[in-house]
């Protein structure tokens, strides 16, 4: 798996089919879409970097996709504390019980979009 921040367009397509990079013009504007607050994204990154610097977490990765475009990919800190291996956007990490939260958030997005209902039976899917 390539490092998303530095991979070629072909490598990006192999990992995230249908996703393209923003044009230089769009990425220079720092306002590629109304749903992304660059100020909030940068504040999030500063807060996460501070957590790494304080030793609260070893490292983090963040990825923002919008309308089929890769807006942002960042990796910071360490993927492995013992070997001092740096975090990369393609680093594999254990999520432990976080999968349930991710699925719940994704499901609520579908509910908000009217694609399903909270009353739907699981067997429907």
What is the quaternary state of this protein? single chain
Helix amount:
25-40%
Main β-sheet description:
4 strands, mixed
Count of helical stretches: 4
Written account of the structure:
The protein has helices spanning 9-15, 24-29, 38-53, 98-112, and strands spanning 20-21, 59-66, 69-80, 85-86. It is α+β, with helices and mostly antiparallel strands and 125 residues long. Strands 1, 2, 3 and 4 form a 4-stranded mixed β-sheet that branches. 5% of the residues are buried.
Keywords:
alpha+beta, 125 residues
Quick synopsis:
This protein has 125 residues and is of the alpha+beta class. 35% of the residues lie in helices and 19% in strands. Strands 1, 2, 3 and 4 form a 4-stranded mixed beta sheet that branches.
How is the topology of this model organized?
Blueprint: H1 9-15, E1 20-21, H2 24-29, H3 38-53, E2 59-66, E3 69-80, E4 85-86, H4 98-112
């Amino acid at each position: 798996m390539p490092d998303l921040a530095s991979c070629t367009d072909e490598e990006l397509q192999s990992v995230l089919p249908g996703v393209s990079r923003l044009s230089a013009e769009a990425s220079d504007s720092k306002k590629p879409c109304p749903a992304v607050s660059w100020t909030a994204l940068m504040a999030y990154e500063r807060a996460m970097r501070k957590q790494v610097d304080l030793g609260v977490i070893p490292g983090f990765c963040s990825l923002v996709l919008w309308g089929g475009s890769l807006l942002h990919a960042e990796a910071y800190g360490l993927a492995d504390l013992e070997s001092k291996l740096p975090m990369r956007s393609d680093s594999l990490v254990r999520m432990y019980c976080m999968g349930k939260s991710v699925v719940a958030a994704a499901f609520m997005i579908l509910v908000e979009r009217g694609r399903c209902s909270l009353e739907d039976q699981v067997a429907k899917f």
